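Design job #97: recover the sequence.
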């Protein structure tokens, strides 16, 4: 079976989608009868093994993302790969190219709805824009043979818009890489922190939906002995004195070390469709203090952290105090066990592969899309 992934959500600083694709290709490479190909934007047309790029416009201030403008080159590239199944990982040009290529080849096409486009754009440009995008998403994703959503809340939104054949497909965590044994006491010394400091952490790109301003306001309220390590490209430089900023894209080994060496993750995001960094934190053996919204409300269980009222620094500060009044060591152990049980990439990908095989042999719905 040959599976081809296509998406524009693939850049040096990109997050969950790239991690998902890398994990998929890593796990599937260990299965003898599977072949995987990846088609993503780049500076030029190129191929290295089963990794293929087509030239696309680099987005200004887009943290390395590139945006394809024409369907045909992507459709032709997918047809030339001749896969048995295509998965599209964004709701733009590559999705339409995937649908057209699937129709031309007569193979199933899966759409993975990684990001809640109507809600994100509606937050920025108003409710009317959000409603128009809901109609666009419904029209596009109704044409896929199967639609994957990373959490139940997102799957239910798609169903409310009239999209059928929606399947909840969680992402996963590399539980060997993100592990409590990565804990390094030297990190606190590097940050100039004493042993009694309660070290909080957030890792991610700076964007509006991450609500970094809520994290900073929370640390202002908390004061010592709390300290926040804020890691990711575009992070603000003017921050409270109990905040340290690492303003760059950090490597996975650096992130794994920092997570395991912290006491808890602080996450104010309200638009998470999975919250991968929260799962990586729990796999690293630290609890999560987060907003009771989006996928965090589903994926941070009681006992592995505390969820609080969204967009409320006072509530988040109180949640921090509450966490450290209880048995943090027990929360650390439970967080790790929860991820091992539910979000190990090997288990996640085996479930996904079963779904792919069912689509391929026709035991699940196979649509015949009509695209323009």
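Job complete. Output follows.
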């Amino acid at each position: 079976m040959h599976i081809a992934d296509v998406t524009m959500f693939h850049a040096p600083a990109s997050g969950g989608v790239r991690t998902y694709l890398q994990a998929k290709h890593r796990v599937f490479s260990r299965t003898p009868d599977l072949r995987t190909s990846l088609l993503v934007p780049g500076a030029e047309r190129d191929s290295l093994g089963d990794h293929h790029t087509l030239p696309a416009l680099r987005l200004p201030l887009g943290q390395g993302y590139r945006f394809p403008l024409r369907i045909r080159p992507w459709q032709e590239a997918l047809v030339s790969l001749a896969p048995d199944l295509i998965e599209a990982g964004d709701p733009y040009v590559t999705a339409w190219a995937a649908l057209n290529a699937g129709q031309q080849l007569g193979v199933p096409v899966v759409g993975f709805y990684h990001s809640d486009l109507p809600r994100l754009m509606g937050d920025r440009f108003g409710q009317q824009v959000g409603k128009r995008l809901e109609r666009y998403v419904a029209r596009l994703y109704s044409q896929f043979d199967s639609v994957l959503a990373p959490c139940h809340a997102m799957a239910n939104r798609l169903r409310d818009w009239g999209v059928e054949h929606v399947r909840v497909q969680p992402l996963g965590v590399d539980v060997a890489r993100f592990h409590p044994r990565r804990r390094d006491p030297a990190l606190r010394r590097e940050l100039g922190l004493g042993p009694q400091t309660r070290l909080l952490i957030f890792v991610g790109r700076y964007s509006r939906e991450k609500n970094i301003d809520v994290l900073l306001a929370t640390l202002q309220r908390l004061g010592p002995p709390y300290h926040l390590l804020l890691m990711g490209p575009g992070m603000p430089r003017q921050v409270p004195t109990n905040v340290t900023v690492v303003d760059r894209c950090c490597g996975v080994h650096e992130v794994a070390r920092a997570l395991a060496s912290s006491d808890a993750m602080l996450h104010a995001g309200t638009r998470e469709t999975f919250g991968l960094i929260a799962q990586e934190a729990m796999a690293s053996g630290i609890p999560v203090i987060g907003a009771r919204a989006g996928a965090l409300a589903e994926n941070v269980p009681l006992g592995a952290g505390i969820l609080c009222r969204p967009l409320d620094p006072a509530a988040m500060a109180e949640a921090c105090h509450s966490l450290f009044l209880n048995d943090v060591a027990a929360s650390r152990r439970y967080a790790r066990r929860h991820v091992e049980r539910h979000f190990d990439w090997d288990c996640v990908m085996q479930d996904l592969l079963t779904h792919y095989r069912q689509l391929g042999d026709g035991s699940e719905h196979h649509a015949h899309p009509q695209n323009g």
